[in-house]
Specification:
36% of the residues lie in helices and 20% in strands. The chain is an alpha+beta fold. It has 4 domains: 87 residues, Uridine Diphospho-n-acetylenolpyruvylglucosamine Reductase, domain 2 (2-Layer Sandwich), CATH 3.30.43; 118 residues, Uridine Diphospho-n-acetylenolpyruvylglucosamine Reductase, domain 3, CATH 3.30.465.10; 120 residues, Alpha-Beta Plaits (2-Layer Sandwich); 76 residues, Alpha-Beta Plaits (2-Layer Sandwich), CATH 3.30.70. A hairpin with a 5-residue loop joins strand 8 and strand 9. The radius of gyration is 23 Å and the shape is globular. This is D-lactate dehydrogenase (Cytochrome). InterPro entries: FAD-bd_oxidored_4_C, FAD-bd_PCMH, FAD-bd_PCMH-like_sf, FAD-bd_PCMH_sub1, FAD-bd_PCMH_sub2, FAD-linked_Oxase-like_C, FAD-oxidored/transferase_4, Oxid_FAD_bind_N. Belongs to the FAD-binding oxidoreductase/transferase type 4 family.
Amino acid sequence: MNDAALIDQLIALIGPQAVLRDAADLEPYLQEWRGNYRGTAGVVVRPGSTAEVAAVVKLCAGRGIGIVPQGGNTGMVGGAVAEAGQIILATDRLTAIRELDAEGDHITVEAGVVLAQVQAAAEAADRLFPLSLGAEGSCRIGGNLSTNAGGTAVLRYGSMRNLVLGLEVVLPDGRVWDGLRALRKDNTGYDLKQIFIGAEGTLGVITAAVLKLFPRPRSVAAALVAVPDPAAAVALFGRARAEAGGAVTGVELMPRLAIDFALRHVPGVIDPLAEPHPWYVLLELSSTAADAPLAQQLESILAHALEAGLVDDAVIAASEAQRRTFWHLREAIVEGQRHEGGSIKHDIAVPVARVPAFLERATAAVEAAIPGARVVPFGHLGDGNIHFNLNQPEGADRAAFMGRGAEINHRVHDIVAAMGGSISAEHGVGLLKRDEVAERKPAIEIELMRRIKQAIDPAGIMNPGKVVRA
């Protein structure tokens, strides 16, 4: 961007150190985490307050300049990349924890606070903020809100939509909507905050939020369970819910190949069982009662499942350290895949009972299309969210394999649609899935989305081109 007058105005609003233009300074903001997209914007602005965000947005609105909000830049769908002529509005200086009310079980944080810092602040107050995901050390709350982040605790606590009480948002004309209310019940009209959650910055810039806190678990028990197939995993989950109810807080499904990748490439990964098995479930129970007999309850669940032929082997964590090794194994799958060549990824959700059928049909479809493709489906079985990924055949050409991504996506997504599922469960839409979402959603849903976009952002300056075409 060579508009010297605009640069001067931005500097006047937020200071020279907060307006980045040098190539080395821009680089961290331009490259998408997966490497599938690279932005070409020539300016990054880093406002340090809501007032400064509002001033920047108002200036850009007056000049018709596109604004791309960006948090930790850990997104996977191209939602935070900006083209030449647009500016990136980074929230990485909006890092204040404005209030923590332990008795009221809520915390008010600015959009640039890193998720792990929110977790730590809650822990220091003997509370829990339950959102947990692999990028929690670098992703920021604004991005979590804008993508309606899910993670490993959705089964018990819900996604980000369920964890928010109030928002502060800078609207596309530069006005500020102060909806930072800590109310648990408010029946006075539309729930406006939900319009902005999951909108990926296309309707405004989230600058702060009131988030729910919860009592910290005092007792936790986890097991790494070998199961013969995904159908047994679903049945095990059903038995666990029947016997332990709301104490079931984590149910993660993993194939053996994913574990092999993690063992091969990620330090500190341990194979907990003596023999390999085709499928595994990481099953976790938790309770706020310090003396809850969760280990015994978990042992009972597994014993009954073993009798029913649902379990081949299992190990219950004997210590917190061992429990962490189970989760390290689960979290290492993504990193392990990165070392095995090209990977075509899907973030899908189907009703939990249909997960086994989906896996069977989708695996057959992709293996027929690409013989030798290594299918690595894993994820949050408890809410039906499976990361159905496939790595290139050993020795295959990476570029040729990745070039078939769109074809494979459509094959997999056709199966998802036939099962009443979603082609984006927790990663968002961005650029990657925008056009396919428009094709697959009912026309009336796309029409309503466009009407909302046009009503709130008639000039189309907020994250142009993402989520839904104007």
